[in-house]
Amino acid sequence: MTGHLVLEDGETFPGESVGAAGFAFGEAVFTTAMTGYQEVATDPSYFGQLVCFTAPMVGNYGVADKRGESARPHAAGVLMREARGPEWTDWLHAHGIPALSGVDTRSLVLHLRERGAMRAGLVADGGDVAETLRAVRDQPSMAGASLAGRVSTRAPYEVGEGPLRVAVVDYGVKRSIVRKLVDSGARVTVFPHDVDADTLAAFDGVLLSNGPGDPEPLVDEVSTIRALLGRAPMLGICLGHQLLALATGLATFKLPFGHRGANHPVLERESGRVLVTSQNHGFAVAPSEDRAATHESLYDGTVEGLAYPELRARSVQFHPEAGPGPHDAWPILAAWVEEVRCAAA
Predict the structure, then answer these.
(1) What is the reported pTM?
(2) Contact 12, 5 (CB under 8 A)
(3) pLDDT digit string (tens) for 71-106?
(4) Across-strand partners of 100?
(5) Residue 314 CA from chain centroid, whole number
(6) How far is CA 227 from CA 8, 15, 149, 213, 231, in A?
(7) Catalytic residue list
(8) Residue ranges covered by each domain of the chain
(9) Cβ(154)–Cβ(147) below 8 Å
(10) Do 2-137 and 148-344 fold alike per CATH?
(11) Which of 143, 151, 197, 162 is nearest to 337 (CA)?
(12) Which partner from 90, 93, 207, 248 sits 20 to 30 angstroms from 329, CA to CA?
């Protein structure tokens, strides 16, 4: 069955429907990761987005429950040059995700790079293009979207064992982050996004997770982080990094087309080392020469890491758990857990 993607500027990209029937609206974005399609679809940071894969074949190694980054998919829709294997397309269909194969993904990505990520509609079963375009233009923009509450856990839960107690604030946390903390010896309690600072301060360490949407509307979450500074060791990842930046007076902004993929170079300023990193974000911390800025993107100079030793807080924009992705940044989570352990001793 023929479907199509309609962008808010009127551009249309046809394709063959290989997922669920119906339609989906969201922000059209692309990822350059060559593997990890199931991890991408289940990453809460992709909530409300139509994800275009630049890899020419998607689905060629099947699916497995252990690869899921959350209990359910969060990507609104999937766009591919060629979908391979019935396991992947059956999985998309079973989880209600509209998807198109046979899309000219090269042209689509070039268009998004030139015009920026934008609102779009994916229609899996034909439909009128003009009607779809009108519906797309009625959708809210990702700028100004407060989405953490849409993907956060409703109640606290605990994972792992041991004396070291780490709190994770769930703005859309990936399972692989929790898994890495547990593997490093932490007993993890995951809290909803609106947990208060006093509750978090009772833990040995606090991790501010990744998540979808614009950080600026999360005023209450930023206030909580500001109230927590200096009271417990803190590590922010992705959205958590952006919220720490706002809490310490730095600025964030919407990137033209985001950083999404598993091959993004990041400069560690102190050592001069370049890390190849996994990233997934549409907003960033503005370039800064502030001494707290420890890492920067070699693509656009945006701040990729912060450190406030006097406040016992630091953060990274990229994903050190690398699920999926290169392992250059793997030591960051284990080293932070060890620092928390030493501080708690």
Answers:
(1) 0.97
(2) yes
(3) 999 999 999 999 999 999 999 999 999 999 999 999
(4) 17, 79
(5) 18
(6) 40, 50, 20, 23, 8
(7) 238, 319, 321
(8) 2-137, 148-344
(9) no
(10) no
(11) 162
(12) 248
